[in-house]
Amino acid sequence: MDIIKKIAELKLVPVAVVEDSENAIPLGNALLESGLPIVEVTFRTTAAADSISILKKEMPDMLVGAGTVLKIKQVNAAVRAGAEFIVTPGFNPTVVDYCVTNNIIIVPGLNSASFIEWGLERGLNHFKFYPADLSGGTKMLQAFSGPYPTVKFMPTGGINNDTLIEFLKLKNVFACGGSWIVKKDLIASKKFKEIELLTKEAVSLIQSL
């Protein structure tokens, strides 16, 4: 499977903070029922690796990635658990180089031309644009399209249903990432039906493109 191509087809990556691995399955079910078989489980909690492992074991059709990856040991933990892609908030050369050397799919975070060129030097051309809302939004991405026509972005940070389509209409955006459909408090309080409704609304918007 071409992971990046699959992400581009789905167009939306739910960024989930899972504090209790028992919530992994109902979260996965809510996303699958909504027609969005993908999730990025962030390494902001100790339950991240277990949650990824559970999702991959119980839901093989779900595309599962690891987010907020800051260290090589987190990369290894994520890969061992079954993560199919790595997402970082910033461009850490140590982590990026490790992933590139070991053929681990990584979408590093950045918000400047300098870091884009660091990525291009390493053979990468798909990046997370973060934080999207505070880094110039769609105007910044449009500016990047001139000097970097082969580069694609996954804007994340501050995106919601009101701005999702605005970003996805850009030719250099391959997907959007966001937590608004899988809010931390909704997962913690087990409000999976609400997550399902929020996700269905976002998926409906995407299908209207």
Q: Summarize the helix and strand pattern as letters.
A: HEHEHEHEHEEHEHEHEHH
The whole-angstrom Rg is: 16 Å
Beta-strand percentage range = 15-25%
User: Based on CA inertia axes, which overall geometry fits?
Assistant: globular
| Shape-level CATH architecture | Alpha-Beta Barrel
**Spatial strand sequence of the major β-sheet:** 5-4-3-2-1-9
CATH-defined fold name:
TIM Barrel
> How is the biggest beta sheet arranged?
6 strands, parallel
What is the CATH domain class?
Alpha Beta
CATH superfamily: Aldolase class I
Write the layout of secondary structure elements.
Elements: H1 3-10, E1 12-16, H2 24-33, E2 38-42, H3 48-58, E3 63-67, H4 72-81, E4 85-87, H5 93-101, E5 106-107, E6 109-110, H6 113-121, E7 126-129, H7 137-145, E8 152-155, H8 164-168, E9 176-178, H9 184-188, H10 192-207
Parallel strand pairs: 1-2, 1-9, 2-3, 3-4, 4-5, 6-7, 7-8
